[in-house]
Amino acid sequence: MVDPTSDLGEDVDEESAPRCATCGDAIVREPTHRVVTWVEDGSVHHRHFCSDDCKADYDDAA
Fold first, then answer.
1. Which domain covers residue 57, as residue numbers?
2. pLDDT for the residue 24
3. DSSP sequence for 14-58
4. Span 19-47, mean pLDDT?
5. Number of structural domains found in the chain
6. Is 23 a domain residue?
7. Chain centroid, CA 2 distance in Å
8. Does 57 reside within a domain?
9. pTM exceeding 0.90
10. Does residue 59 form part of some domain?
11. Is residue 8 situated within a structural domain?
Protein backbone atom coordinates (compact mmCIF):
# COMPACT_ATOMS: atom_id res chain seq x y z
CA MET A 1 0.00 0.00 0.00
CA VAL A 2 1.26 3.48 -0.85
CA ASP A 3 1.10 5.99 1.99
CA PRO A 4 -0.69 9.03 0.50
CA THR A 5 1.16 11.35 2.91
CA SER A 6 4.57 10.15 1.80
CA ASP A 7 6.77 11.75 -0.86
CA LEU A 8 8.30 8.31 -1.33
CA GLY A 9 5.48 6.29 -2.78
CA GLU A 10 6.18 3.10 -4.66
CA ASP A 11 5.89 4.93 -7.98
CA VAL A 12 8.72 7.42 -7.30
CA ASP A 13 11.70 6.91 -9.56
CA GLU A 14 15.29 7.92 -8.82
CA GLU A 15 15.03 11.06 -10.95
CA SER A 16 12.11 12.53 -8.98
CA ALA A 17 13.08 11.17 -5.54
CA PRO A 18 14.32 13.50 -2.80
CA ARG A 19 18.09 13.78 -2.35
CA CYS A 20 20.04 13.29 0.86
CA ALA A 21 21.07 16.67 2.31
CA THR A 22 24.52 15.26 3.15
CA CYS A 23 25.65 12.96 0.33
CA GLY A 24 23.20 13.92 -2.42
CA ASP A 25 22.11 10.34 -3.18
CA ALA A 26 18.54 9.81 -4.35
CA ILE A 27 16.37 8.22 -1.66
CA VAL A 28 14.14 5.54 -3.19
CA ARG A 29 12.48 2.96 -0.92
CA GLU A 30 15.19 3.21 1.72
CA PRO A 31 14.14 1.90 5.15
CA THR A 32 16.84 4.13 6.69
CA HIS A 33 15.31 7.33 5.22
CA ARG A 34 15.04 10.13 7.79
CA VAL A 35 13.26 13.47 7.42
CA VAL A 36 13.78 16.50 9.64
CA THR A 37 10.93 19.03 9.56
CA TRP A 38 10.73 22.49 11.09
CA VAL A 39 8.61 25.67 10.86
CA GLU A 40 10.36 28.97 10.21
CA ASP A 41 8.62 32.29 9.52
CA GLY A 42 5.29 30.52 9.04
CA SER A 43 6.63 28.11 6.40
CA VAL A 44 7.29 24.41 6.75
CA HIS A 45 10.78 23.23 5.73
CA HIS A 46 12.30 19.76 5.61
CA ARG A 47 15.55 17.95 4.88
CA HIS A 48 15.89 14.35 3.78
CA PHE A 49 18.70 12.03 4.87
CA CYS A 50 19.40 8.55 3.51
CA SER A 51 20.62 7.26 6.90
CA ASP A 52 21.24 8.15 10.52
CA ASP A 53 24.95 8.45 9.68
CA CYS A 54 24.31 11.12 7.04
CA LYS A 55 22.01 12.96 9.44
CA ALA A 56 24.69 12.85 12.14
CA ASP A 57 27.34 14.08 9.67
CA TYR A 58 25.06 16.98 8.68
CA ASP A 59 24.40 17.84 12.33
CA ASP A 60 28.15 17.76 13.09
CA ALA A 61 28.89 20.12 10.19
CA ALA A 62 26.22 22.64 11.23
1. 14-62
2. 96
3. TTTS-B-TTT--B-SS-TT-EEEEEEETTEEEEEEESSHHHHHHH
4. 93
5. 1
6. yes
7. 17
8. yes
9. no
10. yes
11. no
